[in-house]
Amino acid sequence: MDGENSSVVSEFVFLGLTNSWEIQLLLFVLSSMFYVASMMGNSLIILTVTSDPHLHSPMYFLLANLSFIDLGVSSVSSPKMIYDLFRKRKVISFRGCITQIFFIHIIGGVEMVLLIAMAFDRYVAICKPLHYLTIMSPRMCIFFLVAAWMTGLIHSTVQLVFVINLPFCGPYVLDSFYCDLPRFIKLACTDTYQLEFMVTANSGFISVGSFFILIISYIIIILTVQKHSSAGSFKALSTLSAHITVVLLFFGPLIFFYTWPSPSTYLDKFLAFFDAVLTPFLNPLIYTFRNQEMKVAMRRIFRQIVNYRKIS
Ligand SMILES: *[C@@H]1O[C@H](CO)[C@@H](O)[C@H](O)[C@H]1NC(C)=O
């Protein structure tokens, strides 16, 4: 990256979430707790799915991959935010800022495609159960994974190519606790109207587009389930409601950030806080606490660990 040559800026200053000491303390306790809990919850899902042969099916592989991405969601901005909470001067280097933007958009792209893959998996399982194993073959899973990572990489790289050489001449203050494109571009000292439009179009189009694909596929699935109402359909509906909750939690704040004309910074910040800290924690909770197979597998793992301790 030769961004430093064209822009003399070497660091940005975050204004952070709030100046109130009490609220900072509260946010510190909450975000540390949720950070640790989501790292543990998602790692536990990955461990359970990879180590239990009962769970070696496309649905659980995709779930484990979603947990892997959620480890990234928790780590891309929360640790820095927690570290900064009580610091008077919250700074981030130019490189650090670009790195955060780069990873935020990779992770966002991967997560969207994974959610679409999970919806497709449920669509096949519920609407074409007899062809499930041939359609959701290992090759199909690999295809979804490659598609997810390529989408994330290309989307993120395209955005960065446009902003990496922007000239900055101060102030270098971001009214936020992490770097992201809308605020970053506003700091540049050129006419950024077209760039802002490009970013809104790019991120906005991807998120609104995936959101509609997901909503439409869930509507198709629900209509199919209603037609063949049977014992299995109740279970299918409960899995679906978990998926739909995750989709709404993930896309709600995103669509707000990238498509709202002039967001109120206060609401914006707290939505971002919610997205960074709470969603990666809620995903494992939503998927496992409603899923009997997952709970049984986790108990099996705990028992194995306990037995192993007794023997050795
Ligand atoms: C992601 O999915 C692939 C293929 O479906 C699987 O082999 C792999 O173990 C999964 N990754 C994680 C971290 O669970």
From TrEMBL:
GO terms for cellular component: plasma membrane. CDD domains: 7tmA_OR4-like (cd15226). It is found in: Cell membrane; Membrane. Its main location: membrane. Residues 41-287 form the G-protein coupled receptors family 1 profile domain. Putative odorant or sperm cell receptor. Belongs to the G-protein coupled receptor 1 family. This is Olfactory receptor. It comes from Equus asinus (Donkey).
